[in-house]
Amino acid sequence: MKELPKIYEPKLCEEKWYQHWIEKNYFHSEPNSEKKPFTIMIPPPNVTGMLTMGHVLNNTLQDILIRKARMEGFETLWLPGTDHAGIATQTAVEKSLRKDGKSRHDYSREEFVQLVWDWKEKYGGIIIKQLKKLGVSCDWERERFTLDEGLSAAVREVFVRMYKKGLIYKGKRIINWCPVSRTALSDEEVVYKESQGKLWYFQYPLEENPTIKLVVATTRPETMLGDTAVAVNSKDNRYSHLIGKKLRLPIVGRLIPVIADEYVDMEFGTGAVKVTPAHDPNDYEMGMRHGLEFINIMNDDATMNENAGADFDGLDRYAARKKVVAKFEELGLLLKVENYTNNVGYSERADVVIEPRLSEQWFVKMKPLAQAALEVVNSGKIQFHPKRWVKTYNHWLENVRDWCISRQLWWGHRIPVFYCESCAWEDALIHAPETCPKCGSTKIRQDEDVLDTWFSSWLWPLSTLDWPKENKDLDYYYPTDDLVTGPDIIFFWVARMIMAGLEFRDDI
């Protein structure tokens, strides 16, 4: 008898047996009326990515669940696939182009998108090869990609349905803006880093008596050029006599009101805060509550625009910061400067400080979708393990905000909204019209933006089973049974998938 080797060499047997399993079709599934289904959809990793230890653990747990169900006699489907990862993939390709001294703007949109497809074909399969090397028992005959035509059709269908229903709208709101990629970002694409910065104390003179000055503290001096109010807490006796009065905004010369708002923390700085509604999410909410003016002072590359004044127009935001501070010092209105530690948001991909910015984008109304998603979890129909994450889920959905779904990118699902350049016609349609239904013009253009990557991901359990077409796979395998994922995407992905299932299939 041949002696067994003293050291186990995985490669010698694992590749052989994995290939045997594939050839024998052991992982493939078809609807079987004599068996109960057990379905898991793999959380689709970024097509440009590589396996991390987190991926390995996650997929090992899924493999355990699916193999157990298979041995127990269920008809098991573990459906694999990858995500097109809009900004991550586009950033990787643009980085590659920069090595040759080029940018995407050296190409037409169609040429650049083809470059990304070519890049995806060359580098995009690494993570799938690694999953197979891990030995996972996915049904590889059903592998999907979020930009496959079938999945793209589902995305268009959902957008059009929600647009017609009034759940999707275009409006101006504060969003996370990346000045390098020049696109809106989701909260998930922003990482926070502890920063050692400064807290500047500026004095704003009272209009009726300039010898009286209200002191405000800020970590972003350049944004004062867009201030339209100073806010104090109505319970703060130090400032109650100033509420309703006007201040003269230094450098700019604009008159701005002193307003009372419960949001103001009396313990932060001086208890009086500058309000820049176009450049801060909390200030935006105050601006809406008090009917303030919204003044956008930055271009999309984070340089100052004409609204910042002639002395600042064209300056980088940090150069403008230095100049604002110098001007206040020159005017004798810089009271003091303190060291200050705070968390600053960075674009995860570009590694640059993001700018909260008032921008016209497409949004999904989330409150109409959130209530049903709360009920299915709190009723126990969907269960979280560990249970403590229910509290996190509830907190997010009870405080849900509208979802910014547009991105100023070229790689991704292009927004299916069409405009007539000859009249004011606009509509969301699954297919591009040849002529305007209102005036007959052939001058039709499609919206330039693409959809947030999560807009295709939230449809993953439906679109991978060829929804919206009614078919036996969808009837048999949906809804799914288990999902193994991280707590960091409970809101960004899990909650939204629940909403989509309830909205478009009335089941989860």
What attributes does this structure have?
Rossmann fold; 4-stranded antiparallel β-sheet; 14 helices; alpha+beta; 508 residues; elongated; 4-stranded mixed β-sheet
Task: Describe, in plain words, how this protein is organized in 3D.
This protein is an alpha+beta fold and 508 residues long. Among the domains are: 27-161 and 454-504, Rossmann fold (3-Layer(aba) Sandwich); 189-355, Isoleucyl-tRNA Synthetase, domain 2. Helices cover 32% and strands 21% of the residues. It has helices at 10-23, 53-71, 86-98, 109-123, 126-134, 149-165, 281-290, 317-331, 367-378, 389-398, 453-457, 460-463, 472-477, 490-504; strands spanning 37-41, 75-79, 81-82, 144-145, 168-178, 183-185, 190-205, 213-218, 229-232, 246-248, 255-260, 272-275, 334-347, 355-364, 403-404, 406-407, 417-420, 426-428, 444-446, 450-451. Strands 6-5-14-15 form a four-stranded antiparallel sheet. A hairpin with a 7-residue loop joins strand 7 and strand 8. Helix 9 (367-378) runs antiparallel to helix 10 (389-398). The longest helix is centred in the first third of the chain and has 19 residues, at 53-71. It is elongated. 35% of the residues are buried.
